């Protein structure tokens, strides 16, 4: 039980005070760069103060370096890693495999946490992380309690699990929707929260829009809350209990951290958790889109989604019972104070909110209204029957407010020796086994006038002032009739407290800067003939492609892989399994058995679990786009794992491509025709609307999501009922094939999604002609441009830096 950790989010100084004061064991923070929350960032100078303050209060500090990295950032990244290491950071949280590789090269003793952005969601993936050198894995939010138990039993590695806060509808590290819509990449810390926007479900075969009686926010999850299940998570082997919310207000951090501190301590002491109604109410009030226990405990559909609204709901406190002009009468179910925030919700009207400035009970101006009728003025139209929610609470904010002055002092203890002819000697210690000793250069002399009393000496030593310390006990062994100047006593007290502070704040003494030499080697691409590959999802698409002189075809459906290989062999075509980027333990076992039963040499990997399952079995490995390969350091790391070719990221632009391909130590493939996969999710919008657990409607009917701009994003099922959401437009880079060849890209892929046979055939012919002759079929390309079914993706614009 001693290893259990409560991990709090910190995005500002006030949040730091709230986390530390309310019982966090560790905090996670981000710097000005390389962190997945750009708006919650500290400068290097601020980070130094965060680390010192946290360590002083016995709280660990983990710094997020959990974004994808571009080559032009690698030198700055190295300097940042040096900075974090030398300034006593306890652990570094990473997404990019290249960054992880770099950290292990530079500082093997630097504790390394693999972020949830690495999409580690199965047992084999966690085993891979441990083998690679990770000290901890932040598991996917989609994992169940049973899956987490299996991970812990198999790998015996620290597991960090999100227990409270906002949820992502997409598997972390795999979301490109924000990136594609506005060049704000979630993988780069600038998510635009496109999942919180309204969408309509559309039957693509008929064009019909399906009615929704649950709301329009079909991709907006509720907030996670597992405080009552803390015991089950502890027993499952969870090491660190992570609260989401670096962008939240300090009141949120204080409220949630305090509640989970209480729950964890209760279970450790009594083997049960019993949280008060008031604590639950405070958590509801401070921020909630409605709460779910998440996939952790089997919630899905309406139990998981906040389809009616994408933001803070507040607490229902009453209903409008009368309206006369601007004066509104609310029948309250719970107290209301001046300064509280309210939201009025009607069936056929837009929500409106206000902060209470004045209110009246029976005509009397009041500051607090108890349950019953209360009158107030509304600056917007209100109708009778509207529900009224309290969105902010003045009293709660006051109860949880933390300032610099309210941070509790640290108890210390002292033994003092004051003897004639000897220096003043002080030994002090704290409850965490830190101990320091100091003594003056001067010695005590015989007093000629008024001697120094023991009470006066104690009084001076206990003047700890604005420091973090307070003497809980001090014992003085002192001769009578002696004296020493008060200025010397004050000076030695300051020295004592400074030494004790240094002892508490320095967690990793002796760290020194270490330089490493680059190990990347360039690949000679001058003699490589570019090839065209095709990716298909099923037998029907495969049969279409087999007739078009494509030598290498990637095949996605593992269940029909045997038939695909047989067809490929009959046509003299190489079939390469294109493994899923989301795959659970049972599917890994099944896929491994199928692959090993077939005459296969090459495998395209979608995630790290299948790599671990198949390594050392003689296969040639390729990596797919899901590995977010943006820099040469990542390619070098993959090469050392035995990978032979990488697929370049969708988020890399022309200029970055030119430098990366030139330096790459492995052959590169680029997807030049597809619908870019915006999201991959365990949530199914179709099931949400029809509210049937096993609907299977997607197998017979094609669906899509219509966004606010009337664009339709196709939905496709993959694997074990996993939903992929695709861009409304096709990525088409046929105009840049010659340029990409000159850069050194060796392979060009057409990745088919929901295209029909004719569309696939035309695309293959267009790209084959372009590669063979250097000429682009302008009529074919014009069809896409004229129908607004064309995008160059990030080829020119790139994503935020």
What is this entry, summarized?
This protein has 801 residues and is an alpha/beta fold. The chain has 23 helices and 40 strands. This is U32 family peptidase.
CATH homology superfamily name of the largest domain: Aldolase class I
CATH architecture name of the largest domain: Alpha-Beta Barrel
- Give the CATH level 1 class of the largest domain: Alpha Beta
The major beta sheet can be summarized as:
13 strands, mixed
Share in β-strands: 25-35%
Q: Please identify the structural class as seen in this structure.
A: alpha/beta
Radius of gyration: 31 Å
CATH topology of the largest domain: TIM Barrel
Unreliably modeled segments: none
Q: Please, how many helices?
A: 23
InterPro entries: Pept_U32_collagenase (IPR020988), Peptidase_U32 (IPR001539), RNA/ubiquinone_mod_enzymes (IPR051454)
Protein name: U32 family peptidase
Domain Peptidase U32 collagenase: 388-504
Pfam families: DUF3656, Peptidase_U32
Can you walk through the features of this model?
The chain is α/β, with parallel strands linked by helices. The protein has 4 domains: about 5-180 and about 225-295, TIM Barrel (Alpha-Beta Barrel); about 315-400, Translation factors (Elongation Factor Tu (Ef-tu), domain 3, Beta Barrel); about 410-505, no CATH class; about 530-680 and about 715-790, Alpha-Beta Barrel (TIM Barrel). About 30% of the residues lie in helices and about 25% in strands. It has 23 helices and 40 strands. Strands 9, 29, 30, 31, 32, 33, 34, 35, 36, 37, 38, 39 and 40 form a 13-stranded mixed β-sheet that branches. The protein has an 8-stranded parallel β-barrel with strand order 1-2-4-5-6-7-8-11, surrounded by 6 helices. Helix 5 links the parallel strand 6 and strand 7 (about 135-140). Helix 2 crosses helix 13 (about 485-505), helix 3 packs across helix 4 and helix 5 packs parallel to helix 6 (about 145-155). It is globular and about 110 Å long. The mean pLDDT is about 95. This is U32 family peptidase. InterPro entries: Pept_U32_collagenase, Peptidase_U32, RNA/ubiquinone_mod_enzymes.
């Amino acid at each position: 039980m001693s290893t259990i950790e409560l991990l709090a989010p910190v995005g500002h100084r006030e949040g730091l005070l709230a986390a530390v004061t309310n019982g966090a064991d560790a905090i996670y923070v981000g710097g000005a760069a390389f962190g997945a929350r750009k708006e919650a960032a500290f400068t290097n100078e601020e980070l130094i103060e965060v680390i010192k303050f946290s360590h002083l209060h016995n709280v660990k500090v983990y710094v997020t370096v959990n974004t994808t990295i571009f080559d032009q950032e690698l030198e700055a990244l190295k300097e940042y890693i040096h900075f974090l290491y030398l300034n006593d950071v306890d652990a570094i949280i990473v997404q990019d495999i290249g960054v992880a590789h770099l950290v292990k090269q530079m500082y093997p003793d630097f504790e390394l946490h693999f972020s949830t952005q690495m999409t580690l969601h199965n047992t084999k993936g966690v085993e891979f992380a441990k083998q690679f050198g990770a000290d901890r894995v932040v598991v996917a939010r989609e994992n169940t309690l049973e899956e987490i138990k299996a991970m812990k039993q198999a790998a015996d590695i620290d597991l960090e699990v999100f227990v409270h806060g906002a949820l992502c509808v997409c598997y972390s590290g795999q979301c490109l929707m924000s990136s594609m819509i506005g060049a704000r990449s979630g993988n780069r810390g600038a998510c635009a929260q496109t999942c919180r926007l309204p969408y309509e479900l559309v039957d693509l075969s008929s064009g019909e829009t399906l009615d929704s009686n649950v709301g329009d926010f079909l991709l907006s999850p509720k907030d996670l809350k597992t405080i009552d299940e803390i015991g089950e998570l502890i027993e499952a082997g969870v090491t660190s209990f992570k609260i989401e919310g670096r962008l939240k207000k300090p009141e949120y951090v204080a409220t949630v951290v305090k509640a989970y501190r209480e729950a964890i301590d209760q279970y450790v002491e009594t083997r049960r958790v019993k949280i008060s109604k008031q604590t639950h109410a405070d958590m509801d009030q401070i921020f909630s889109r409605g709460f779910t226990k998440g996939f952790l405990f089997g919630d899905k559909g309406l139990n998981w989604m906040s389809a009616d609204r994408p933001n803070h709901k507040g607490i229902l406190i009453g209903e409008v019972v009368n309206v006369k002009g601007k004066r509104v009468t609310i029948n309250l179910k719970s107290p209301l104070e001046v300064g509280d925030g309210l939201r009025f919700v009607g069936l056929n009207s837009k929500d409106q909110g206000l902060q209470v400035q004045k209110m009246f009970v029976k005509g009397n101006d009041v500051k607090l209204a108890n349950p019953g009728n209360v009158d107030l003025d509304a600056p917007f139209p209100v109708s009778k029957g509207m529900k009224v929610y309290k969105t902010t609470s003045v009293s709660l904010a006051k109860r949880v407010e933390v300032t610099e002055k309210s941070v509790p002092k640290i108890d210390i203890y002292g033994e003092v020796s004051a003897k004639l002819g000897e220096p003043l000697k002080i030994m002090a210690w704290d409850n965490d086994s830190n101990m320091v000793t100091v003594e003056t250069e001067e010695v005590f002399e015989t007093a000629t006038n008024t001697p120094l009393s023991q009470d006066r000496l104690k009084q001076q030593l206990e003047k700890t002032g604005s420091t973090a310390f307070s003497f809980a006990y001090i014992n003085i062994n002192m001769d009578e009739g002696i004296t020493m100047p008060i200025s010397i006593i004050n000076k030695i007290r300051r020295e004592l407290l400074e030494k004790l502070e240094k002892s508490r704040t320095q967690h990793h003494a002796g760290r020194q800067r270490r330089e490493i030499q680059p190990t990347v080697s360039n690949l000679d691409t001058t003699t490589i003939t570019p090839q065209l590959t095709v990716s298909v999802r099923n037998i029907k698409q495969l049969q279409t492609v087999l007739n078009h002189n494509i030598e290498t075809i990637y095949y996605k459906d593992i269940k029909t892989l045997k038939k695909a290989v047989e067809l490929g062999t009959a046509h003299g075509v190489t079939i390469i399994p294109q493994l899923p980027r989301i795959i659970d333990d049972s599917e890994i076992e099944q896929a491994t058995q199928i692959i090993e039963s077939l005459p296969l040499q090459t495998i395209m990997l979608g995630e790290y679990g299948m790599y671990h399952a198949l390594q050392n079995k003689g296969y040639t490995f390729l990596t797919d786009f899901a590995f977010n390969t943006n820099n040469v350091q990542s390619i070098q790391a993959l090469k050392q794992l035995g990978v032979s070719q990488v697929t370049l990221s969708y988020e890399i632009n022309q200029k970055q491509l030119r430098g990366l391909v030139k330096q790459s130590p492995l052959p590169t493939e680029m997807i030049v025709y597809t619908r870019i996969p915006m999201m991959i999710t365990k949530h199914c919008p179709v099931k949400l609307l029809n509210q049937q657990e096993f609907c299977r409607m997607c197998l017979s009917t094609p669906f899509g999501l219509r966004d606010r701009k009337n664009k339709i994003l196709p939905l496709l099922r993959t694997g074990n009922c996993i939903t992929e959401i695709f861009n409304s437009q096709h990525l088409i880079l046929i105009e840049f094939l010659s340029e990409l060849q000159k850069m050194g890209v060796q392979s060009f892929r057409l990745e088919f999604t929901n295209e029909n046979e004719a569309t696939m055939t035309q695309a293959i012919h267009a790209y084959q002609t372009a590669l063979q002759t250097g000429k682009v079929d302008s009529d074919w390309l014009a069809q896409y441009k004229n129908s607004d079914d064309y995008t160059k993706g990030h080829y020119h614009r790139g994503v935020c830096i």
